[in-house]
Amino acid sequence: MFAQTLFVLGLILSVVVAIPIDPYGLSAPAISYASPKLLAAPAISYAAPKLLTAPAISYAAPKLLATPTIVQHAAPALIAAPAPVAVTKVAVAEPYDPNPQYSFSYGVTDHHTGDSKQQEETLVNGVVHGSYSLAEPDGTIRKVTYTADKINGFNAVVEKKGVAAVAIAKPALAVAAVPAITKIGYAAAPALTLGGYH
């Protein structure tokens, strides 16, 4: 089909080019051309596809082995559960000391930081006796002695030992006066004009 179309177009083009052109339009040329030869369509033929035959499928039945032997066992015998044992809960009282007693003490003395403190305390016959002491920032030692019981409550006695160190004021450092900064004035710059535009 494509070849035939090209042939017809080529034939038309050759006819158009062969026509003489009169620039003045005085004479009409005689036009003659031979009729185009048409090409015969090619013979198209095809053969029907060959069908393949399906392969022959065959199988043999599976061979059975010897019949399995089924073994039956007797049902398991049930064993009776033992009779429940009676459990009784017995509340055991924790040991109670009607007259508890304790005693402790500690102390710290650190020469690097100046920290110094001690404490001691005892409990005998329901009465707490104790004391603690510490170094105050002014150099004195504060000692607190206390007792506490169910009848009188908490009672404390505070003592202060030593003389408070008096801080001596350091003389103020003389500071030189800073000279005042003087501003320097500048004359104003002339106005800038560009090419006569204001």
UniProtKB/TrEMBL annotation:
It comes from the Eukaryota. Keywords: Cuticle, Signal. Pfam families: Chitin_bind_4. PROSITE patterns: CHIT_BIND_RR_1, CHIT_BIND_RR_2. This is Cuticle protein. One of its GO terms (cellular component) is extracellular space. It comes from Drosophila ananassae. Residues 1-18 form the signal peptide. GO terms for molecular function: structural constituent of cuticle.
